[in-house]
Amino acid sequence: MPEQTFILNGKKVTVDVEDDVRVLWVLRDILGVTGPKYGCGINVCKACTSHINGRAFNPCAVRVGDLEPTDHITTIEGLADTADGELHPMQQAWLDKDVSQCGYCQPGQIMAAVALVKKVRREGRSITDADLDQIRNICRCGTYSRIREAIEEGARNM
Amino acid sequence: MSGPTIDCERAQSGASERSGISRRKFFGYVVAGTTLVAAADIALSEPATAAVPSPPQVPELYDLNDLLTDATRATANLITVTINEDGTASFALPRAEVGQGITTSTAMIIAEELDLPVEKVKVTLADARPELLFNQLTGGSNTTISTFTPIRVAAAIARNALLEAAAILLGDEVNKLVAKAGVIQAPDGRSVGYGELAKRAAVSETKKVEVTLKDVSEFKVIGKEQKRIDARAAVTGRKVFTTDLRVEDALPTMVCRPPTLNGKPVKLLNEAEIRAMPGVTDVAMIDTGVAVRARTFGQCIDAVRAMQVEWKPGPVAGESDEDIVRKLRQAEIPLPKISELGLDKIGIGPVNLNLVKSIDADFLFYFRSNSALDTNSAVADVRKDRAEIWASLKSPIVTQQTIAAELGLPQHKVKVHVVDGGGSFGRRLFFDAALEAAKISKAMGKPVKLMWHRADDARAGRMHGMATSRVRALYTGKQVLAFLQNHTSIETDYRHGLGDLITASVANLPTGLGNLGFAETIFALTQEIPYNFGVVNQSLVETDQRFNTGSMRNIYSPDVRTAAELVVDQLAAAMGMDPLTFRRKFLKDKRVLACLNKVAEVGKWGRPLPKGMAQGIAIHKEYKTASACLVEIDCRPETVNRKIPNAVTGPRVTKAVYAIDAGLVINPTGLRAQMLGGINDGIALTLTSSMHLKDGHFLEASWDNYFYTRQWNTPPEVEIIVMPSDRKTPGGAGEAGVAASMAAVACAYARAVGRVPDYFPVNHRDPLAFKPKPFIPPIPQSPTNGLKLTW
């Protein structure tokens, strides 16, 4: 069985698994990293949103064999370590606005929010309503307004 | 068809709770143990005093919550608050947390009576406790209504026992001691913490004690803004849902399902090939399909897609939306005629029938899905002589009983654990995944972690049945003489009963008669027209048991209320009155009126808007709560046709204002969260979300097909007002935000486009906004292009 190596939340990991297994299942079923959630398996609900080399990606749509040993994958579990403090400012904003209801989609929402702030900064601008309108992460509890407020607060503290 | 029988004497005997007056003296227990355990009978209820209003519709007198609360009175079983040596208190809540915030509100209630900080109260979800009978059902927005008093009693008894133990330790009198934040202090400044007292306050024999609860005026925790106690776990990825559990050897498992709804497997034609696939450990046929167990869910998906299965077609094979509409139309009963109404008896004197005018309206509501983001899932470990189940379950007792019967085990040999659910919206009243997982584990002889693929959860999961709602309103001059509504629906499945097998069995009687009785009862206990409209009559007909249905959040009310409020707007127009003015004139409930006035003021009712935009206003009363919603909608072409990649856009609700009087509010933050969810549900129900039945199966297979509200459709402006209330007992919250929201959006839409829609959601007959995913194989493969889509 092929050996797959990549960097997960700052630590090198090696897993024996077939190339075509999607990264989401390697994380959840083999490594026990369950912050990224399954919601569709076809990259439309975005509940598994995590980061690869600092950018948002969806591990349900990436074969583990396509990862390079130098690829840095960050899941919600490793997000806090990418910033100062016990929590990432975006996680803190989520607490301040009491965003979560059932909480199932929220790891993906937070990872998407952090990537969005970084993206608009790369583009030399700040977040607009149009940016918020285009966030694809679904929340079946309907926490959308609190998500929008939290992103604005989190961005201020990032 | 006869209506439900309501025992009026019994209805009145609980009237003080119904009218929101509370008493404070109760009995409970200090239970034998090594540490302090205080207990109350969960069936505690309020005594009779107040009168009931008259002449009311049934829900005003006795509503669904009274049925649920009264069902619990029959049992005499204990819930316990335990004081631990680390100074914390623990409590196992016999309900399901699915996002509605009841673990947080329960921690607050305990913290209040116990004088302990909220963060020191540990609330978990109780395993199935069959001795609780009816008292472990999470539904009807009833949790806080039914558990508020017993939980307080147990906590207050614990506090008294701690004070007594402290009095001995500190050598002072109980009434001179002060309990605060988990510490008891004597007048001389000496103090002792609850942790240190936990063992000293323990008793060797259970004793009955009386306790006086705090008065509302003494509350320091209840009614204050409290953030969720599980929020930190949620935002760090540590909150555990069913599929996150690590139960030894419970490997990922999925089911290959039939290409027509509820079809049956006949034979797996390539079993050897499937067994040889990478990661696959087991294959087994069960009644719902062919199950596969593998090292990863990805390998389960591969195996399901590779299966060649011979199927027997399901019961709706070949049928489509229009066939079901036809069946519903055939089941409709005529609305009463003017001559049958006894208009002379409603106290307005003789009525000249020639001057009576009628508004007849007819609305169609298509199938809708209550699929949560966390799909149906369960872990099952079935052995020869016992079984253990883990799942998010709102009726764990009937789950336990049904699985025990299925496995041929005594009930107590099946242990059922209730796990946090990633949403419910009614889905988790049933236990489809738990039962299926038990069957698979038994067939394979191994533990399994069953997860429904999203496509299965969407297409084969339970849903809200298609329904029609017909309204006839009779008026003369500026008076409404009668308001008649008949709701005709695909059968709503209540076979979970009130959470135990006895009532589930009644609902399960042959030919659906039992379930029909349940449906009628639920309908009669929830529906109410809170207007002075003369003769009011609402009735329900249900037909067709072939679909997988259940109570979707707020059950009948969103559709029934939307139909009614649209007719209210038409009545207003017919009388030349503004929708707000009309409602003010005809509303008979002061709490609803206060909510209406509040949203009108905050939402600036009547403010000028450009052509193509409009406001809508609607009210609702249920779960002992009153509410009103005002929305503004933008139906201008530039908005309707706005482009968001791969999105269904359409009309945009730009503002939503919601006011709710939920009686005594435990946690305003949590209540507003529930209303926010209700608003987004209401928008989806009116504008975008439905299931299309075509040739025997539903087309929608994932979130790119089923258009629940997304960020591009959510209102940029939302204001939710928690109204002050004169009720001293809590009302229900979990479902209370949906009906008024759906109705307000529908009313606003009708005013904006100048046409009252006669079907919902309004986009259902538009050309499909997606290409339906195949039915064979039943689930789509995961893409591989994710690295090209990073951003």
Explain the overall architecture.
The complex is a heterodimer of chains A (158) and B (791). Chain A has 158 residues and is of the alpha+beta class. Chain A folds into two domains: 3-79, Beta-grasp domain (Ubiquitin-like (UB roll), Roll); 82-156, DNA polymerase, domain 1. Chain A has six helices and five strands. Chain A has a five-stranded mixed β-sheet. The longest helix of chain A is centred in the last third of the chain and has 17 residues, at 106-122. The mean pLDDT of chain A is 98. Chain B is α+β, with helices and mostly antiparallel strands and 791 residues long. Chain B folds into three domains: 8-235, Aldehyde oxidase/xanthine dehydrogenase, molybdopterin binding domain (Aldehyde Oxidoreductase, domain 4); 242-315 and 376-451, Aldehyde Oxidoreductase, domain 4 (2-Layer Sandwich); 321-368 and 463-760, Aldehyde Oxidoreductase, domain 4, CATH 3.30.365. The relative contact order of chain B is 0.12.
Indicate the topology.
The complex is a heterodimer of chains A (158) and B (791).
Chain A: E1 3-8, E2 11-16, H1 23-30, E3 50-52, E4 55-57, E5 72-74, H2 76-79, H3 89-96, H4 106-122, H5 129-133, H6 144-156
Parallel strand pairs in A: 1-5
Antiparallel strand pairs in A: 1-2, 3-4, 3-5
Helix pairs in contact in A: 3-6, 4-6
Chain B: H1 8-13, H2 15-18, E1 25-31, E2 37-41, H3 58-61, H4 64-73, E3 78-83, E4 89-93, H5 102-114, E5 121-125, H6 143-170, E6 178-180, E7 183-185, E8 191-193, H7 194-197, E9 207-212, H8 231-235, E10 251-256, E11 264-268, H9 271-275, E12 280-286, E13 289-294, H10 297-306, E14 309-312, H11 321-331, E15 357-365, E16 368-369, E17 377-382, E18 387-391, H12 396-407, E19 414-418, H13 432-444, E20 448-451, H14 454-459, E21 463-464, E22 467-476, E23 479-490, H15 501-507, H16 513-526, E24 535-543, H17 557-574, H18 579-586, H19 590-602, E25 613-622, E26 625-634, H20 637-640, E27 652-661, H21 668-688, E28 693-694, E29 697-698, E30 717-722, H22 738-753, E31 759-760
Parallel strand pairs in B: 4-5, 10-20, 15-31, 18-19, 23-24, 27-30
Antiparallel strand pairs in B: 1-2, 1-9, 2-3, 3-4, 6-7, 7-8, 10-13, 11-14, 12-13, 15-22, 16-21, 17-18, 17-20, 22-23, 25-26, 26-27, 28-29
Helix pairs in contact in B: 5-6, 12-13, 17-18, 17-22, 21-22
GO molecular function (chain B): oxidoreductase activity
Pfam family, one (chain B): MoCoBD_1
InterPro entries (chain B): Ald_Oxase/Xan_DH_a/b, AldOxase/xan_DH_MoCoBD1, AldOxase/xan_DH_MoCoBD2, AldOxase/xan_DH_Mopterin-bd_sf, N-heterocyclic_Hydroxylase, OxRdtase_Mopterin-bd_su_IorB, TAT_signal
